[in-house]
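Shipment paperwork, digital attachment
Item: protein structure file
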Amino acid sequence: HSPPKSKRNGNSKPERRHTSMSMTEAPTFPPPPLCVVPLKETVCSGFGYSTDCYEAYKADSPFGKGIILGHAIVFVCLIVIGFANLFFYYNGAREIWGQSMVLTSSFYAILTSSFALCRSVWMLSRLLFIGAAMHNFFEWCIVIQLSFNTVRKQRKYVVLGTAFILVIISLVSLVPDLKAVTLLEQSCGVMLDLGLPLMFLRKWIYENRQLYRLPALAHSIHFVFTILPLIFANFFVGEISWVTTFGLEFLIYVSTPITHILYLIWSVEFDNKKRIQQDGDMAKRRVSRDEANTLENADVLQRPERYLFISFFLGLIPLVVIPNYILSPCPSDKFCKQNPTVFRTTSVNVYDGFGRAFQDRIAHYKLIENGTSARGNKKYELTKSISNPTQYNIFEEWASEKDYEAWVEGGLPSQVFRKDGPMGDIINGSMQAAGYRKPAPSSCHDEVHVGFFVDVKSSCRQVWSVITNFENDCSWIQDCLYVSTDPQNPKIRNLTMVDGEVLVQKLLYVKHDEFGYQLLPGSPALPGYKGVVTRTRSKVPGMGCGVGFKYQLHKGNFWEEQVESMYTTQQRSTIPYIRHLFANPGSWVDPKFEVEIVNGYIRHEALSGAHSSLANAARLNAPSNISKVQIAVEDRLKALAHEWFRIVEDPKRDAEPAREILAQNFSLLMSGTNIKTFEGFEAWLRGPADLVRASTHIIDSFNFESTSNKTHRVTMVLSWNGILRSNGEQWISQTEHIWNVVDHEDDNFARIKKLEVQILVPFSPLDSCLLPA
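Attachment content:
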């Protein structure tokens, strides 16, 4: 069934692994092995804009709200710092090149604030990397003002620096691979962020130039406590711990404002010293301000390209070497392996008015206290139902199944609920217990599953004849006009839609109750997906069949972004269409030829023998430590079913073979009577059953449930064809058989303890039935 083909919208949200972990439960360090969590591309949205991105932090972690708040505080602080710098410019000479460092520091802070906003909303996206490139531009401006001693040269190299940054922004915008974009911008950014402190520290410490004291401190703090934590935080996005989640983010939030406050102070000092230097040089050499020296010769950075070259390769250590050769990527099962935590609920009903007595017996044994303190227990609570005051529930959470079994084997639960006499007199009926595990996070799977289930009036046979008519019928696919099969491959068909588009569908498999297909990719804008249609008898009164439509969509492509749109279309259009298509409740029993009806009992005899042989062979080869009644149960039950139908269809009407398949004290609810004796069955076989000259049963569905090692419940839906003895007319019907069966090791067949027949489609002459056109 074809999901809607709509355009990308801005409503997609990044997929996140949800966690119920609280801050107190968060570990100090992530669990071993310490490794790099692979970045997964998704879509980030905010303020009406959506873009491809990688997650930069886990918004649904225990620290998620704090991380968002931290970004907001940094954003506000940097805006304040940036405009404070502009205030100094406004109250100064208001000369762009006379106060160039103040302006640079101002916009440096403001652009960094936008970086914080982008990281908070759009995470690791192209928008963030464009902001990072502009952030780096102002670092270039700092280097240029310290490397060239006249305003004329500084203008020239600012133009060159602008061109370099525009190239980076263009590559960030145009390169399709987001991972390549990430490495490109980060490597260029780290080159500056590491190169600047190397240059400044040399001038300050080695050459004792005090002009570089504050910028050396500022950019060392920036690199060590902002840039490196930003890089390392990307390694551990999927990990939740105090160090990797809270610690790294905290360093970023604290160090960033400190860096820009130091630059604010220094930029004012620098521009004041520059003006004094320029004024002195203009008077001394009688040159214009553009030609005057802005720094003393000893303060000029010499050959900064050497430091940038070295820092580029040193920057590859945190970007490439550490994640790939020291930590290495996390194994694929680190987040996706089965969660060992076990959840259990036990429901207990007490007699009316005995609730307090029940609670007091629990308190007498200190069940809750002992359960809570037991090894591996995370939760052990007793609750009382709001709607039913006689019902109590015990909720348990254990670190592993082993811990739970150790608690049970310890004997206290058994002592309280099984061996305690007063408790047995308080509890009304048996206790209901169930166990649960957490499923693997959705992010562990390579596909997104979408679908719907709808009950229709048509019978399942009728529905299935349409769905599985692969070569000729596409009516169940909304907006499909007609179908044409590939002459080279009958499992490939072309679906021509009302808009003229042709979809290519491949048949994967057809089972009794399941139909699998694949929509083959038609273009980059329409990638393929897998679909499954299922059928089951409807449990809704008045409905005939329940039909399920499931789609498996690959993550990261067109379909994943359309999930919400698909569900909306299903509710508004697809489900009403399917209900209308299968609104005919008529019979859908396949009519059989007379030879098939007459020889039906022979077919059952052969099938019964085949299933018996399979079961006997399996039991013969079974390990000695396994009870034979647990082996080949389905074959034993099918052998019984076919033997029963052989007996009731055999025109000899011989009841004797039934002694081998009927249990003691059996009950046969059929033909409006309850037959409880062999003589009664024999009379039914020679009476009502003999009204047809020949008949045959076709098993449409066969299901069973083992209620113990030796007892089973069998459910079958059967199509029946018969030829009346009186006038030779062919009649049809559909029934459901529900059997209770007991199976003993030494018997040739399992035995029927109880048989109940329900009529699904009434017995009717073939000509009067609603058959397909």
